[in-house]
Amino acid sequence: MGWFRVGRWGGGNPIVSEAVSPPSPSRDSAPGASVTARAVPAREVQAAAAVAAGLTLLTRLPFLARYLWDHDSVQLALAVERFDLAAHQPHPPGYPLYIALLKVLGMLGVGSLAAMNALSVLAVAAGAAALVPLMVRLSGLRAAALAVALYVFNPLLWFYGELPLVYAVEGGMAVVVAWAVVAMPEGRSRFLLAWGLLALAGGLRPSSLVLLSPLLLWGVLVTWRRGRLTVGRLAGGGAVGAAVVLAWLLPLLAAAGGLAAYREISSSHFDALLPRTSVLYGAGWSALAHNVFLVAKWAAQGWVPCAAVLALLWMLSPRAIPAAFRLLGSRSGLLAAWALPPMLFFSLFHITKAGYTLIYLPALLVAGALLSAPALTGGAESRPTRAPGAVRTVAAAVLAATVGGAIFLLGRDREPDAPRWQALVRHELCLQEIRGYERDLEETLSVLRAFPPGSTVFATVELSGQGAAGSEGFLYPWHRHLQWYLPGAPIVYLVPEIQRAELAPGDHRPFQPVPWGAWVPETAERIVWVLAGPPDERFELPPGETISTDDRFWVVQTSTTAGVGGTRPLDQSILLR
Known about the structure:
The protein is α/β, with parallel strands linked by helices. It has 2 domains: 42-407, no CATH class; 433-576, no CATH class. Helices cover 53% and strands 6% of the residues. The longest helix has 27 residues, at 112-138. It is globular. The termini are far apart.
């Protein structure tokens, strides 16, 4: 019956669309052991999945980013031109299949920005489509419709779905893998497919392979408990997964210069990062508290539309609340295997962006849809004013779309002195933040491009932050953006606290270490500083002229004879490498 075939979960009850009462928890909390009304025809599932994917495209395409976003975004674009893991093009652990797809699109004439945007949108659309058969297996078609609305209009997923980054790709693949895992007991092909998709997700973003492995193991366990696991099938799944992993791992290692070189590059990166962010690497309990706070904050921000929907439905159907928790409990194994490992990993090691949460945020949205499902039937209440189930489903989906859409499309970041609770609905994960960044970057680039590149060196500074995980007072360096958008000029990246200086000669060539006291090229007549804000006493700029300032960029011009950059001449051969 096709890709969205609706069948039985390991010989249990049929997959259902409208559960009059919540499913009875089974001994393995597996989907399919539910009280059913009718099986959902495959064509209905296929149509709903197509609508979900189409709705994703309609909501994402008008708002796509017009510039590369952060330094990770630029590094991915640079990797398309020259894959160099040592130069962080891209940064470790590498994204081999993601970069390969970008290269293929580049051969077809698609630029790096457009290609990354396309992968983000297509991945989210695939996730929305896969969410339909996943939810049909877990509860029914009405719950699937609500889950799609919660997913498509979620402000965090919408924000990252508009950006040239890998997070939306990982988030979409997480849903696809979850669908495949739930279908593992349905046959050999489904079992093997789950292994292959997880390995494929690892090639797009290697951390997915680690963080989603517990989800796959849950599927293996359920398959065994259903009597569908054989030694041959397990060996086959392992072989498929290993083959796909080797298909992208071996080229990655070769591009890095071998296994030893890859390990050295990765160790150098993580040894510099984790001691500042991980309690396990000496960052202290404050780092753990900071990471836990971010995990909780971004989860809460992503769950706001779910809370609004539950408030409405439970007000209409208070008697459905116990049934809702029974349904959620019967699916707790799947959701725990999906969400808890990445949440624990990020808490213990490292989390700096809300995009990290996209790997498990869909699991939280699925939980919200499951909690809503019993109230969507319209038959659990005896009130004369109760709305029919279909009307309730439409109302809940519209409310989810309205709340999530308003936060992303109309929202703005909270003012620093505003109450902290406002961060639930007023945060930087909104369209205004994207457009504001693009406006500031565009204006800054117009100023910088007025300087003659042959006699100008552009410099930027990074200063470490204070407090938990170094999150307070961090001065963001713009060296990657300058490297990408000003290819004709030399770019200097400075870290004063360790007297580290690197120079990119131009034409998108990698940064190379240069002496701290001699980083100004002889041909330079001026230094143009492009900073995220005024530096503190750790690095004092010489007297100069402030060219432009805004919320994100602070541009100052100084002479090359003011003492900054040293007096020894820079080895000009660096500019020719």
